[in-house]
Amino acid sequence: MSAGPTLPAVDDAVRADGLTKRYGRTVALAGVDLTVPAGTVHGLLGPNGAGKTTLLRTLFGLSRPDAGTLTVLGEPVVAGRTPGGLAGFVDSPRFYPYLSGRRNLELLAAYDRRGHDDIDAVLERVGLAGRDADRVSAYSSGMRQRLGLAAALLRGPRLLVLDEPVNGLDPAGIRDIGALLRDLAADGGSVLLSSHHMAEAEALCDGVTILRAGRTVHAGRVEELRAAAPAAAHLLRTTDDAAARAMAERRGVDVTEQDDGLAVRAHRADLDAYVLALASDGIAVRALTETGSPLSQLFFALTEESA
Ligand SMILES: Nc1ncnc2c1ncn2[C@@H]1O[C@H](COP(=O)(O)OP(=O)(O)OP(=O)(O)O)[C@@H](O)[C@H]1O
């Protein structure tokens, strides 16, 4: 892949401090802080309307903030200009639907005054080799996401910014793209991606910034989040739910009755011990399903608590 523009090394690929953006009466960003350490994959998380897209648009110079400071790869972002060394997409990647994936990449390379030498390599890297001659109109949504990533990689970016890049991808696709993003970070590149899903971010990212109503409500490494997360929630059904509930109470396991069974909140070791105790008391487990991973619960707690 061709090298990106020569820019000085930086500690943080992105730094936003107190970024504010209003659309009339709507406050899309209410003083957001965001740091993406260089050489990491960072997730920007938040529910619908939290301000993720607005923040990504300001990074690309597509939207001018009303207040705050923003640097990308050490340089202040100027509205109307894509920062040097940055590539990616905000909203869905766009292509000429009646042209092939390869032809779209060729046009992009020509626009950037680059040769076509890297096209085969990026098609291979995103898993589109063999489908590159098909028209984009015949691509699945996951294939379009992959082509969007190919287009960004073609620019040899030092910072890749991707708006919901694994939307529409199957689990194998998510795994492959995750591996690709990790390789980029291992080579010193940086990645910022947006997502609605904590589980997705947990699988892909080193660190996350969580937005709610235009504000940063959490920023840190995924391991720190894991350490702070509550016990997982489970739905339990047994041959005798009343006896199972009584036993949970005796053992100090957090259990509540629901229409469809018992809601149990417990860390893994406590849950295992409880299930074994049920069995030894002759209470058979008919179903035990995790209903909310610890990190997902933390995400909901951070983004849904009243403002
Ligand atoms: N061009 C615009 N004009 C007016 N309001 C806007 C505009 N763009 C965004 N907003 C508003 O700003 C707020 C933040 O929107 P934004 O699209 O940044 O959120 P998001 O986190 O990306 O949401 P989603 O997950 O639904 O994509 C919302 O209230 C939205 O309605």
Automatic annotation (TrEMBL):
Gene3D superfamilies: P-loop containing nucleotide triphosphate hydrolases (3.40.50.300). It holds the Pfam family ABC_tran. Residues 14-238 form the ABC transporter domain. GO terms for molecular function: ATP binding; ATP hydrolysis activity. Keywords: ATP-binding, Nucleotide-binding, Transport. PROSITE patterns: ABC_TRANSPORTER_1, ABC_TRANSPORTER_2. Belongs to the ABC transporter superfamily. PANTHER family: ABC TRANSPORTER, ATP-BINDING PROTEIN. This is ABC transporter. It comes from Actinocatenispora rupis.
